[in-house]
Amino acid sequence: MDVETKLNQFREISEKISAYRLALTTLNWDSSTIAPKKGASYRNKMAALLSGELFSIETSPEFIALIDNLSAETLDDITTREVREIKKNLDKSRYIPKEVFIEYAQLTRDAENVWEAARDHEDYESFKPYLKKLIDMTKKVVSYRKDDRPVYEQLIDDFETGITIADYDVFFNKLKAEIVPFLHKIISKKIEQPAWLRQNVSIEQQRQVVEVLMEYLNYDKGSGYIGESAHPFSSHFSVHDNRVTVRYLEDMFTSSIFALIHEVGHATYNGQVDEAYQGRAIADSMTYGMHESQSRLYENMLGRSKAFWSSIYPKVQAIVNNLKDISLDDFILGVNHVELSLIRIEADELTYPLHIMIRYEIEQGLFNGTLDVEGLDKVWSDKYEEYLGIRPPHNGLGILQDIHWSGGAFGYFPTYALGSAYSAQWMSAMRKEIDVDQCLKNNDFKSVNDWLKNNVHRHGGVYQPNELLLSVTGEPFNPQYYIEYLKQKYSQLFEVSE
Ligand code: ZN
């Protein structure tokens, strides 16, 4: 078979895979937003059937042979990377015996139910044996790969290609040395949370604010949609169809504002990928950290800045009665309020990476054998006390708060902090080329989107994070940008020394 014929076959199967993915994405979106609860069981059954079909296509001997074959051919750069990406994922799963795979899938389903009950009852002891099984089973599943690196090193690489434990160690050690003492300087000022942050704002008013933001961010209704769900998320259907959801809480109106900005950051990334990549694995194979770098750049670096709000704040004041007497400066101080808190997803921008650092240190210990599930809840609480100065009153607000481990997602957490750190490096590069603050003040968000499109978005998942950072910013990942960004921003806002 000549290369042309192989490539044609490859494209044909890839397109079929894309069709199944689109169908499953649509089902997922539907069931997380508007689908009636009573239809769930039939819907889930049909979705499982489609997933099974997709799995059969992706792991068919025909497709595997084709990928192995194409890996040895000389192809254009983009196709080479596309084939490499698919082969990398295949190599992780192809040697796992089917019964082991099924056992693992069953364990994560069971563990999720056990975790949910354990969290509600604040009872770590009932989750502990499952956590042990999840770690053992993860080690077993990874052991089938033809890869000699330590298990946690491989898991880290699964979620963030090209990033190593050594990279994360440098990153988190810097955070620990520089951000922990800096945070305590701010906390010692005992700044109270402004009352207006928790005053009721009607859902109708919040919807109007979301409309203002959508227009300002250039999030186009022709290729986007804003739904509602219990946990905000964004969903990628195609280059011209990227939807987001928000959640409206009457006593926490800024929650819908920043969730919207965050999710539109994700949606804009997928929406600005080169149209030529549509339907190919590289269109949306960007890493977790890369995706998060765009949403957090939107939400925090732009969305919590004074320049961002300067042109639209009067419009928002006209909608939200509670903000009538709140100056723009006070609004910015309020949305950047720093507090020592126990729950990761409610944390402010400054304390957030410390929540991640704690999880990273624990995961690393669990996989290198220095920590065990026995007494891990105490280890968790001790670390919160050491870094954040607060101790969870019970395990529901401690070790049991996140769903990730119950799904076997070890190595995922650090990408959240890494994404924030990447975004500081993007921001610094963008500021060298365009006057970001002036664009925002001029209601010209398009220039920001254009810079992101030309430098980051259009490439989709073609390049690894470090390759793209190097070519756009002139250096691979450097955590110093993030440390400096945090210190500069918060020392100015709250008048403390760096
Ligand atoms: Zn996100």
Description:
The chain has 498 residues and is mostly helical. The protein folds into 2 domains: 3-123; 165-494, Neurolysin, domain 3 (Orthogonal Bundle), CATH 1.10.1370. Helices cover 63% and strands 3% of the residues. The chain has 21 helices and 3 strands. It has helices spanning 3-33, 40-58, 61-71, 77-93, 98-120, 124-143, 151-159, 165-187, 203-216, 254-271, 288-302, 306-310, 313-319, 328-335, 352-368, 376-388, 413-433, 436-441, 445-455, 465-473, 480-494, and strands spanning 226-228, 234-238, 241-246. It has a 3-stranded mixed sheet, sandwiched between helices. Strand 2 (234-238) and strand 3 (241-246) form a beta hairpin. Helix 1 packs antiparallel against helix 2, helix 3 (61-71) crosses helix 4 (77-93) and helix 15 crosses helix 17 (413-433). The relative contact order is 0.12. The mean pLDDT is 95. The chain binds zinc ion. Residues 262, 266, 292, 295 line the site of zinc ion.
